[in-house]
């Protein structure tokens, strides 16, 4: 397994961080985070295009691609304070979902086994199966909880005659034992899928799914607090899966199955930040960015910032565990310039 | 009057529900809801394109077009628990507004007279006049109140030398006696139209119009509660008119006269849901979706979900009147999976 | 200095207000407001296109271009109750930033010196330097505070080898003494720029910058109240600078450096309204609208409404200073039609 | 009848030529050409948007809007060597085709009666009826032949229950006697409309229609030569009607009813040039530019150049009638710089 | 095998022709042509989106969807003079290319075996393999020649580890014996793929490939005449495969792998017409229309007309075999209206 | 002068060729061709965006970015048979045209002095001045002729108060003596600029400019033959400057100043091929690709192929000078597969 580079277009890295080659362990030894592209969209049920997600998300930023991004809010540099490498894309072919699953799982497992957090850029949500499995193989089946932001439950049974696709990874993960059903937290669901049968199965697994109605009624913060408590109950790590369609189509038009009525971009960024700051995150994936439908690249930009928020919060979490930054732990009410002069 | 089918493009139905033919009463006998397309945009003062609204709204969904949409939030299926039929489009010609008005009114009246709720897909807002008149002819002039979501009051006097157009239907409705001025509730108004004269006329009619400033200051929920109380005071039914431009242009760019500063998609869906759940709705229209300006079809998708929210809430209202679903009436704080297993 | 007219396309005015010619003082004598286009985008670090901003913002409205816009919310007509003139565009050439700066400053100073409030339509944010300098030259260096809505601090030192560009105007303004650092209020900052060095310089200047995290934690209204108090402390006027990218990319995709997680359009309009109603505004600029990236013109429409909100609020502030409208001062909770009949 | 200005957006003129007011004959006395906008698209059978054609065509040029355009090819300035005025737009309302027809005919007749050539910017092709009628009323019914570039014959009988619309103007013109059927030359027809009945009627009128198959087989030049000979046989003038959809959709995507397989932009420009140079043109119209569907404004740019080619060729025709330019009549093989030094 | 309907969106038919169900032979008994959608894009190497091709091509027409299209050029109605049915889409899943191939081949074979000509709407070019195999299974392996319009040879060996994909169908067809290599005619190749090895293999098969350089040098008509002669030499039928990217990207932007320098839309239509008029066509496919990249739907419109040209020419070929239309065989130089009156 | 990398976005190379660093001569020693990005658009008079041209052109290809492109037509690999390196972008800042000119000239001169052919990717046409000057400084002022494909002469005097910009480089080149006026060949001019004065100056310089009218009348091939003869008369090398707007807007919409009526993409590619095959080309530039206006990336794709045609033809010219490929010199009529087996 040598470095594949980018499948679609030039071989670039996330905002200019250093390359690594999964075939050469020296290149990512000691990394805190390894970015991996999974440009697979053969599992989409409707609009394709997520294959171009990794490349779009890697570069959707107007600043120099210099491997550094100091966060105004968190006072750390998620790319420079952590050791971050980009392994390029896993070769995946839309027409062959089985091979894609196997290759992605293998690549993710390598990363996780090295001690780094894999940050996987989809691709459609099919890749959550091999991604979270690769993570769980290292940390232990049933020892990693799932925090899943999405408009859709992705717990389908068989679709188009297949077990795999972007509507089913969460079911397969639970069935395989990789993730416990009662440590599966879903945030942002809405709309008209799935039907009662599948919801019944989900309930039987004791999943906890926050539909937007509940989120609006109770407040997102309250729901997250509850979910986070479940996530760390008898689990060693948390896998964060962000389907960009959890955001409202106004904020994320460039996706395959847009469902109106979602989170604002601001809410999504804050929720991801909080998750990565408060929880022991061991894997991150950002999926379903479909550039062909993305006006002015705003969806790719949002996904790029989701990654940066995650990395910044992980860095701050670690810094605060070591005593804080500038002598204090993170306080969201602290004015930007206070203590800077 | 035989089935017109679709004027622009193939003859499809709303998400695959069964066809009916207004010329053949048997085809919609016993229907709870009949969908009707009114692809007229000859009344637009600026960007046209709403003629393609009915077709766009009917199909703006990534799920199978199978005539079923189980609502996660409301635990009913608005398309399957109700008897829903689609009568196709009324033939309307942009260049002849008078004939369009007459034909739409006749078609709506047929539907209302059959006992079904007409759900009319515009087209520009001109069609509110024949739509609400068709409804009122059945339920009684002055017996149906109007709940009108819009950025604009649509109470113009004469424009471009004409009495009819998308800026004037609400005035014509009140003048004709179809709808009482003091049972006319407007939500979401903003911007710079109309001027003092027309506002004066509106005040004289004792209309109640909630401009966004008041909505922000008081909260949308509070305003809706007040408006709903007026709507059912000495009226037998409520006509719900949703101009998609009540949503902010970020959430609904594909419309003719976008006015910044509107509701979010989430707010609109929740408001429609609440209206159809709490009020005795007898007519619904969703207008001003202009596909030529709609990036990634997000406006059409929002309108599609407005229709589904309305139908789902109507279905749930009826179910709760019969004793509830799973033994209880609707509770927005109920977790998605509770009681599902 | 004669009237330049429009650099790009036909010579039009903001929504049809009367023309004036800065070379002929008679044409704007007694004006309350003079609109000026500054179609310069040679200072952009990433996406260009803001050169077409002035023309797009002037006409992004579906109503007649008749020089009148009665505000529903404020019950004044910002274009007709004030004397508003449009001086056309300053000739600027993207390739020569120095000349552009000089010409814009000169034109703005002329307007300010006449007693009118200059409303400058960018162009990229580079123009804040000559704009605010032109204002300060008239009102006194250090006598005008800055209220700056933006995703970015724009306080860079040297970029691409240059002192000037859209990332540096705020630093140059403070260095030149035109604006005091401790009367510099920034609202809406977020993201990953600038780094610690520049933030340190900002802190040393005693700037007050509200990053989105603080805004979310405390609430926008609370932050504004605090900022407004600083703005009028020992200053005679306030310069309002609105970079449209302070709004979320979902609401303002058509801009050069979109940063996810910003204000909604509604929040921006309300904040601008409040600023112009509560503060003694002496200059306004709206910048960074980049039409090539603007789907369905929604960003230009938002900027157009930012201008109208500013003018309407200025008009209402003056009216209320004279005793109010219809006998009372502005109340955001007042129903639209109350007192209209 | 006073100057209407522009219906949609600011009141601009074609590339900055002087305004005139049809209500004030002094303003266009002695004009050679008067440009008139006819922003009517209520006659479209499919995609609307041509209402924005006049404004788009007037400004679709990257050069300064200064009322001058020296033609490289023809060595004349179609805007400056002729006296060209722009009368703004006729107020037309999409919903009322009858009034639109009457108002356009009246305005065109005024122009023709003044001795100027009306150059009408559509709008959809419906306007050919009042335009050519207005011209024929001045020059004499039956005395003006028609040279009609189009993908479609536009000779429909009754459509959508109406006599008028963009598929029928040519039939109405012949029926009314304004244009003789045997002096009706159509170039560029193709596709699948109309059917045998209408074609039979056309043959009975002795129209001469060049379908693309014949054009490809014989060559465009040969067909034009033949058509031109008919056009001037026992007629005093030629009316030139250019539907932009005569060009291939690759060259003119922004139109209502695009039919693949048309002329290239180059062919269209050369054909228009030749027509206006060789024939006694008394009226020109360019229609069916639909900006909502126009990527990068290339269709509007093509239409703008069609107008300029027409005016340049008219100017050169007149110059050559007076002895030529630089001592010689136009020669397409003359190198650009020959005789310039 | 029952009627699948449309996979993506509503179940429509090609321009409104009657439906048939491949599971019910009665529904297509006696059909001359059966249209079949193959919405598979799992074989694309770059831009996906061709899955939406069948639906886009079926409806990309501004005329009524009434199952009739009288050809101006050919004086027949390809939809009404032939018995044309639409079988809907074959269910195909992007992630499983093997099943897609099998299902498409089976469906095509059913059609061919019924005596009808299958007209298959892709989908990506992968489908040429099952399509042509399905045809050849009925007519005899080696008895059907291939006329292949494309920018690319599609003769790749193994790509992304697979034998199947849109770059390889032509190799698989020859290897399988379905089509003889020396009866494989390719028109429109250009660009930089494949390399010498694959070209060597092609030469060994005695394929005849017309690259654009040869086409420009010799003329398209001359090349076609030569190719047609080979096609009917010792073969019983011709399979026509049109990859829309054979057209220049200016005429067909909406495709997956656009290669500049191709045919014009006009050339493509004329070539298809000539092929279907002169050759015994037994199968037709039109592939690689990718709606997400298609501005103003011009690529889908071109593909729609490719189908209509094919059907019209087939109809005219049959009519001329029976003695002609209006007493004569087709003559491209015949004026449109001659003999119509 | 170290490697700048890419100014806008990631540091990639043309289709994956090897990097070089102009600051390190070893990295390009022996190169035949060095690609250089000049992402400057501060000289544009209308639409900007060409700053993103270099990155867009480098990657606008659906094939693997592997540094190899075997030409079907020319039977050579322009990237692999030549030694091609990519030096990244020259840092240029839109707001400072003088520095941009100096830096580009210096970089180009370094490349030319090394013996390699600089292939410069613009940027706007301003860069022709430093590019051709850098080339001429090495080969001798007056010793390099210019072959200039463009819609515009680019021979303006002073514009916007400046000597430099994208409308003036050709004048500055002649004035400076870098290029002789009588060895300046322009192909494809059209439209309405410049006026008589500038044309007079051009004639005085004895430039030879082929306007489209002459090209259509005489045929492009004939004009090129004549131009090529002039180009090599008493000159040692030819500089090829391709403004993508020489192509028709239908083929190249993504450019700053589109002028209808241009060459087809096919014509442009063939002309570039012929020029580089027949002439001793010493410099190449491809400019004015403006991605913000480029639908489906077709303009960038065309520019990418212009570069590849140039490199392929240069390679074939060299191969044929050495005896040909497969024993013969290039013959455009040779069938693709002949001699391949």
UniProtKB/TrEMBL annotation, chains A, B, C, D, E, F:
InterPro entries (UniProt xref): Agmatinase-rel (IPR005925), Ureohydrolase (IPR006035), Ureohydrolase_dom_sf (IPR023696), Ureohydrolase_Mn_BS (IPR020855)
- Entry keywords, A to Z: Hydrolase, Metal-binding
Protein origin, superkingdom: Bacteria
Q: Which family does it belong to?
A: Belongs to the arginase family. Agmatinase subfamily.
Keyword S-adenosyl-L-methionine among UniProt keywords:
no
Q: Which PANTHER family match?
A: ARGINASE/AGMATINASE (PTHR11358), GUANIDINO ACID HYDROLASE, MITOCHONDRIAL (PTHR11358:SF26)
State the Gene3D superfamilies in the record: Ureohydrolase domain (3.40.800.10)
What is the recorded name of this protein? Answer: Agmatinase
